[in-house]
Write a structure and sequence with these properties.
Helix content is 78%, strand content 0%. By secondary structure, the chain is mainly α. Helix 1 runs parallel beside helix 3, helix 2 runs parallel beside helix 4 and helix 5 crosses helix 6. The longest helix is centred in the C-terminal third of the chain and has 29 residues.
């Protein structure tokens, strides 16, 4: 199951770095953090951020800092809020995408944030289905 999530993260890194301006890596990390809740996600957030900065020809480390901050906030507040729910994913993905797109000066920020929220909810549903199916089989 971990390999499925990591494969999806690698595909999202490639797509965001080359094809689209949607924050797909942020969405994948959001879902991964909700389901795994492990500290090794910081390593993935750091490495994926470096690759995104290289693909986008930005200063190396900018995306990593943003992704590390988001993972840190989610792990910090996981006890205070119910993060394993559709409303949390919808709101967190919208606000996180909005900040990400504004921070890195993309255009059509509002529409991309709405689309990112829809993709995040769909991906969360798929992750939840795979996670439940994997948990039942084991």
């Amino acid at each position: 199951m971990v390999f499925f999530f990591l494969f999806l993260l690698i595909v999202a890194t490639f797509l965001e770095g080359t094809v689209t301006t949607l924050p797909l890596v942020f969405i994948c990390l959001l879902c991964l953090t909700i389901f795994m809740r492990n500290l090794f996600l910081f390593i993935f957030a750091f490495l994926v951020g470096i690759f995104l900065d290289v693909f986008a020809l930005r200063a190396i480390g900018e995306t990593s800092i943003f992704l590390l901050f988001i993972v840190f906030l989610m792990l910090l507040y996981q006890r205070k809020y119910e993060i394993n729910s559709y409303p949390f994913v919808l709101i967190a993905s919208f606000l996180g995408s909005l900040v990400y797109l504004l921070l890195f000066s993309y255009q059509h920020v509002l529409w991309q944030s709405i689309l990112s929220s829809i993709i995040a909810v769909i991906l969360f549903g798929i992750f939840r289905y795979v996670y439940i199916k994997f948990s039942i089989e084991n």
